[in-house]
## 1
Amino acid sequence: MVANLGYGALIITFLICLYGISAAIYGALRKAPAWVDSARNAMLLTWPLVTLTALCIIYLLLTGHYEVEYVAAVTSNSMPFYLKVTALWGGQAGSLIFWSWLMSGFASAVTLRKWDRDREFLPWVVVVALVTLGFFLSLSIFVENPFTRLWISPTGNVVESMLQPAGSMLFTQADGRGLNPLLRHPGMIIHPPMLYLGFVSFTIPFAFAFASLVTGRSDDRWIRVTRRWTLVAWLFLSLGLILGMRWAYDVLGWGGYWGWDPVEVAALLPWLVGTPFLHSVMIQEKRGLLKWWNIILVTMTYASVLFGTLLTRSGVLSSVHAFAQSAIGPLLFGFVSIMSIITLILLIFRGRTLKSEGHMNSMFSREALFLLNNLLFLALFFICAWGVLFPIISEASGLIGQVFPSVAHIFTGQKITVGPVWFESTTGPIWLALLVLMAVAPLSAWGASTAKTLSRAAWKPAVAALVIAGLLFAAGIRSPLALVAFWAIAFVICATLYEFWREAAARHRTHGENLLAAFWLLAGRFRRRYGGLTIHIGVALMAFGVIGIEMFQTETQGMIAKGEQLSLSGFTIQYDDLKLFPTPDGREVARAELSVFKDGKFVTNLYPRRDFYTESQQSMTIPGVRSTLGEDFYVLLVDWQPVSSSGATFKIYHNPMINWLWLGGFVFILGTLVAAWPDREREVETGRVTRRREAVVSA
Amino acid sequence: MARLKFLIGGALILAAVVYLIVSSTTANAQYFLSVDELQSTGSKYTNKDVRVSGAVLGDTIQYDPQTLKLTFTVAHVPGDNKDIEAQGGLAQVLHDAVVDSARNRMQVEYYGVRPDLLRNEAQAIMTGRMGEDGVFYADELLLKCPTKYEEAVPGQTSED
């Protein structure tokens, strides 16, 4: 009953989408505002309807309607309330509905804004939003229906079907299979929604870019309108990625946070093209340059969002050997291609109107450095996409290898894969270059900036960073790579703080406020700039943590009897006891009790454990971690002797500086919030005035 | 003039990226093979880093917590996704591979923490070298269990 209601709502929403798309196109072409308004109302209707569908699924999940295949696949009786709710995005069919729900929410939100100054955009924004939504709804309706039920025929066969097959009865199991234990973690509960929010909200900037292309409006209105959308999308995307790293660090139990798994890389791709987009739109706002480039970037972001959904949710890469396992793979691929091609054709068609309003004169101007940032990020994007797709590329392109023997080892015609080492060695130098650029670029000026003016602004922080690197050398760090990386990180932080200080000091001189008050005022007034610079500090701190764990991680392992000890990097663990006990939610827990000593002094107890989920026959290793700002001491219980409970095997990691990664993540998010904080329309006006003035200057 | 400078700059970056990709691909890429492919090619891949996937035989898993030596045997599963789909999906293919004693099998040796997901009919994806003794010495072990859950987690990796 409820399943039928949810499915019915889905179909109605889909039909409304089709109507809205037609009405919007007709209204726009015939210049009939009534039709456009009707399309707008149709779009507003989608959100309540998809909400109804989502609520139906949640109801089924909560009440344990195991005759519904999806419910049986992702929940079980023993799961707590919050996990049953979050099981909505625990599997593919549900997460597609969740995607649609977010999409319809954003679509509705955007229709409620004031459209006075850009009415001509409205129908085309509606078209893009509804086409995207309609596509995802059609996946749910025709391919991955979350309401499919299980039926048992008189002969005893169990079949999956939405409608009742003749003569069969509903097949209701007493219990479901439950959510994968690896996903029963707070990080996993908020990580997917955050990532999805980021994915979905990038549709809106694309919709406006598309509308701008169709209507032939060549100013930067679409960028100004969507600036905050883009930032919010980027915020959620970044948050999703950071939470995912934290989950991997806590749950996957290999002492790392990022494994360059294809699914991870797929989620990183939109970020790698959304970030240069955020920077590059500023060039268009300030100088009227790179208009077509920005449209390409936002289209690529939109495409990679869909591509990311395709990879993470379609089972395309669920096995490293498998490509296009689920039926939605080719459909999504087709959809991405069609949308990209239409945009590209429009772009070529509108090429004339997107001419730059000026020229880029100096290699050291802000806009040139931003362009460099763009190129480096796109290089990362290209490398990561290449790495994910390489098994397919190398297998399909054997001919190239035969024709050009010099590259035969790359285009082999056989399946070749690349792993973490490949990604690290390929992207490493580019990350480093980006760090240095992040220090230098904010010190440059728009328009005319020469090597001389730039080095005058940058030499002090560069030298300060050199002093810091020297101190680290004196402290015993000898790896040249680490020293260079630390120098770059220190350079970013010094340059940013120097910039903060310079501006606050200037205001202190002219207005007489004290430095802190001046800084606060400036940060409040120029939120975007100060938010951006704070993000840079956050990234530098995160890089510090990454270098720490990547280059200075140490590990050891061993079997010890009760009372015995094992040492690593100044730490010693002593194995005190092992407790074996069952829990009410169906786990058999083995929990070791350890005393941890640092330099001979007792610091804490740790309780690494392993949970065995009896019903699913899967175990899960939960580390015992002692965290400080300087380091993590991370212990895994590997194995134990149950009978005598005398000996147990532990694996220990010493992860220096890792917590700076999470701390930097907080700073990063804080900076993004500052930059995205709403401050009325006023900003739009001032933006225009400065723009005009600058245009005069550059002319 | 300025335009030329920018073009040269862009070309340099492009060249650097291509160089990075080509050089690290040469150094770090691995052939992805099935057990059959690895065994039938004779010594072609002996002592070369390759990646191979197979179905884990639960009975053969042995773990020595003292030395962290993990040994188990995997059975051949087809490498091509089309074949897997044609034979009824990954879960079915893994099950068939374990049950069918006529399949090619390969012994695997690995040192490290025993992964949580290692069990009967799991898919093991291993990176390492084939020794002259016919044993596969894995440096990296990645496991996937398609049988029960919808796949929404990145595979559990262990590295040494």
Note: Chain A touches chain B through 83 residues (CB under 8 Å).
## 2
Amino acid sequence: MADPREVVLRRIRAALADSPPVPPVVRDYEVARDVGDVLDLFAERVADYRAVVRRVRVEALPVEIEASLRARGARRLVAPVDLPGWWRGGEVVWSLDGPAHPLSVRALDRADGVLTGCAVAIAETGTIVLDAGPAQGRRALTLLPDYHLCVVRADQIVGTVPEAIARLDPVRPLTFVSGPSATSDIELDRVEGVHGPRNLEVLIAH
Amino acid sequence: MTTRVALMATCLTDTFYPDTARAVVRLLERLGCVVDFPKGQTCCGQMHYNTGYRREAATLARRTAKAFAGHDAVVAPSGSCAGMVRDLYPGLSRLTVGVADRTYELSEFLVDVLGVTDVGAYFPHRVTYHPTCHSLRVLGVGDKPLRLLRAVRGLELVELSAPESCCGFGGTFAVKNADTSTAMLADKMRDVLDTGARVLTAGDNSCLMHIGGGLSRLSTGVRALHLAEILASTEEEPWAATP
Amino acid sequence: MGRNPVTWLGSPAFPSAARTALADVQLRGNLAHATGTIRGKRAAAVAELPDWERLRLAGEAIKDDVLANLDTYLTRLESQVRARGGVVHWARDAAEANAIVLRLVREAQASEVVKVKSMATAEIGLNEALAEGGVSAIETDLAELIVQLGDDRPSHILVPAIHRNRAEIRDIFRATMPHAAQVSDRPADLAEAARAHLRSKFLTAKVAISGANFAVADTGSVVVVESEGNGRMCLTLPDTLITVMGLEKVVPTWRDLEVFLQLLPRSSTAERMNPYTSVWTGVTPGDGPRAFHLVLLDNGRTATLADRVGRQALRCIRCSACLNVCPVYERTGGQAYGSVYPGPIGAILTPQLGAGTDDGPTGKLLRSLPYASSLCGACFEVCPVRIDIPEVLVHLRNRTVQEKPAYDPEAVAMAAASWVMASPRRFRLAQRLLGPLRLLARGGRIRRLPWPASRWTDSRDVPAPPKETFSAWWRRTRG
């Protein structure tokens, strides 16, 4: 039997045999643009997704994180093992997830919430991007708990999608998160809260 | 300087709507143009082309190009026929290239070439305007017809709630998919009736034959009238239905 | 080769399927509401980007480059995925792809798989093929779940259950979900019911099946764009991930995503960004599946590629913007198109992917699809990759016409009409012959004409031919 790979490649070459060359890709769209204050815009756009967003001082992070967890009533938290230790505090039971001691799926599912940092954030679209790098953990960590508290440093926020793409390494597992999980499947209207975390809270630390 | 214009009446208007073509002549002459009606013209071939009869359409395109050779400007009271000539002729036959870039839809010709929006018209009626799909999306006439209508004395213009929604004509679509076409027509008629206008106007007699035919079937009393007939109407010589 | 499941077996030609759909008042109401909502939102989302038209041009150019060098990019993608621990399979058609997936599921010793919404797997009828092989596939996207639980067919690319309103969805859930007997028709409650229904499936599934929105040739990275988080569940929790991807979904570079991640969300759900986009490359130890299989699917794509005009349909990124603005789709809904690809893009994609099935009702359906459009052009205006859908529709109509026998009544009539129109003398004569129709007129209008003109006069009057045509008047007065 013919090798399907060879057949498909041969079909492609035959289909293209008489094709004229295509013009080069012109990228005259805007890579960066003046979006005003990126922090303000990011905060506004995250809030548009009905996520909670607050601007806090870096040095006040432990207090602010504790305040968020208290307001949420979250007591059992999970976090990546490399989360800065000084972020963790309050009357909370912390379970740390890392390559040496991964938490079970059930344990993640039972947690009240997860605290992480992020890799990049996009002001124009109100997006945070996780790349499994420092303070972020593996992908399941930010997926199963129903509440995701994410710390975004001011220097991680860029204005546009192209600026974010340029900063990211695609070979790492990436998750772009824009608001809490949602669906438009009922009458094409956006409703928050399906399988992913139904509550997203972002602390912009500057 | 006098502008010499060749009128492309279109087969439908020539056959069923002579008043529209006469209105174009009257209007253009009032604005100082010298109008000619080249005798060799028949049909631009759009119906054939859009239904998939490309070879037949090419024959008609070559004939049309020949009929209008030597004229500086060709004006058609139809967005879809002008669109056919300008947008699709070049891909059909090299022999048609000359006519394509000299062809204008009426409102474009008035606004862009003659540079007028107030054509001195008078039409004391409540009117709504349907922008036909090909005038809008193939030619890109934009708000030119509306600018012309707003300058008409006595005319009360009321806008449709969904003006850019297709009326459902679509050439042979109207008979090949008659049920869907009729459903689209019903929504367009409802929109027209909701405006309370007594006259529905557009730049294409084909779409007007479809919407007007529906309005007439329901005995709504709303008349479908080509834009040219409104623009040709003056206080001295107001529009009147041909008996 | 078996039949291509891109069309549903036994679907009638479009005009007759449309007639049935048009009679469904509930359906028309649901569609008008949903498409009306999304149209306004899309326009606003697009208006926010000052460089939208330049992004569309870039999107078009990138996809044209992909198609022109498809063999190069696919082999590059293949080697990158392999280098990062993935396995790549090639499938010539639906049956071959289904067999590969079934074999992989069996090798993973699973009898149940969770699925992320995927047009490619819907196109090849994967769920049915798995069921025949004893494997049950659970759709996890809310709309797909509604379709699956309601034993229904999809009617939209993005929102397969768009033809259902909240009350109908509530009734389906109440009847089919064990713990949803009391669920209300509030969208939030319905979403909650779906969450509860699927939670344990996600946590225990061994195998997941997805499609792909994009795959980057340079890096081997695969991208899935979604909203609910069901995609993330499937892409990260099971041990084995099988992704079925149409050949044309490859993009050359990572940078190309800066274009598509702007074009796609704003065109599809009219959002600045969809809630979740996942990107993975092969297998990452300690994070996500331990085995990754990528199935590259032809199933009519290379045949489509061979058509110089028609190939632009392969630029499609499955956003659904053309469906949402289409006046025909808005009235008939998606099921009338007889395929998982409805609306304007379906009218040009289905006949090309399914070409070769010329006999019987399927051939009739395929030939009717390019005529399921008034050529209003709204689809081209919104298409994020600038597919000139009207151009392809007319091109496919021409292909249909060329295959007609010489004695076909329409072809005969069209040839006669063009013969008449090709001569001014014959045209004037024909105009004179129409004159007697005036005898049928009352008050300047004709209400009834015999078939085939009755298809016009069933709902519209015809103006009586005037006493004098314009050309006759011109001859008489200006000579």
Note: The mean pLDDT of chain B is 96.
